[in-house]
Specification:
The protein is mainly α. It is 55% helix and 0% strand. The longest helix is centred in the C-terminal third of the chain and has 15 residues. The two termini are 18 Å apart.
């Protein structure tokens, strides 16, 4: 959501800009809040620049909010420049902010290189931005590009990818089925695809037991990869795996704690 720029008191603008560079994170947080509460074109460069280096999550989140409060005509060119930065955090935060602004003109900036960025945080931001920005009709192409990242990274990275794929809906089923059933694929790829199929059918299912059960299924010679019941586990056609864990949608699964939605 954007708002029209106002004309704050020049002294207050200078104070806010100075506070954005403070070594005190509380001051930076309040400065970002002030910049979003009373938008001014003079804040945009400073907000984007600070986003690239800000170490505190809550301050980064407020910086993103402040940028969304400014006109897209001012923020979009700066953010599109940042996604090409050599600094990983600059790319990640720019993509995250673009996903919040959700202006379709940003879609061409979400390149295959960003979807496969070597930095997990950048890639995760790119996946989320891509799902928001993808033009109607291009979902199958995006699904294929995202499926190429299956098996990548640790739990949080894999959860982010599963969330992005699930957000595309049924269009991802063919690529997930192919990845899950292809014995030439790495076992981690097959397991991740299988767990994502499971979660696509049941968004409230827990991710941790889903991926663990999928790995056991892939490891069992001749185990069913679609709809069967693996040894010691639950049906793979939408049932809930045994044990506790984290739900795909961020809720609390049986025996586990709530896991917050992905954010920067």
């Amino acid at each position: 959501m954007t708002t029209t720029t106002q004309t704050p008191d020049p002294t207050r603008v200078l104070q806010t800009l100075h506070a954005l560079r403070s070594t005190n994170s509380s001051l930076r947080l309040r400065a970002a809040l002030a910049a979003g509460t009373a938008p001014d074109a003079r804040y945009v460069d400073a907000l984007v620049e600070r986003s690239a280096t800000e170490p505190e999550f809550f301050v980064r989140d407020m910086l993103t909010w402040a940028l969304t409060r400014h006109p897209v005509s001012l923020t979009l060119p700066e953010l599109l420049r940042e996604v090409r930065s050599e600094r990983a955090q600059a790319r990640s935060q720019a993509l995250h902010t673009l996903s919040k602004i959700a202006d379709p003109r940003a879609w061409p900036a979400v390149t295959p290189e960003l979807l496969g960025d070597a930095d997990d945080e950048v890639a995760r931001s790119a996946w989320r931005a891509a799902v928001v920005l993808v033009p109607e009709g291009d979902e199958p192409l995006l699904a294929a590009a995202l499926a190429a990242q299956l098996g990548r990274g640790g739990r949080e990275t894999q959860l982010s990818l599963s969330q992005a794929l699930a957000a595309l809906g049924d269009v991802v089923e063919p690529v997930l089925r192919k990845a899950a059933e292809d014995h030439n694929h790495d076992p981690d790829v097959r397991a991740h695809a299988l767990a994502t199929q499971w979660l696509l059918r049941d968004p409230d299912a827990a991710f941790t037991p889903a991926i663990e059960e999928a790995r056991r299924t892939v490891a069992l010679t001749g185990a069913p990869l679609d709809g069967g019941t693996p040894q010691g586990g639950a049906p793979l056609d939408g049932g809930t795996p045994q044990g506790g864990g984290t739900s795909l949608g961020g809720g609390t699964a049986q025996g586990g704690d709530a896991f917050p939605q992905d954010g920067q």
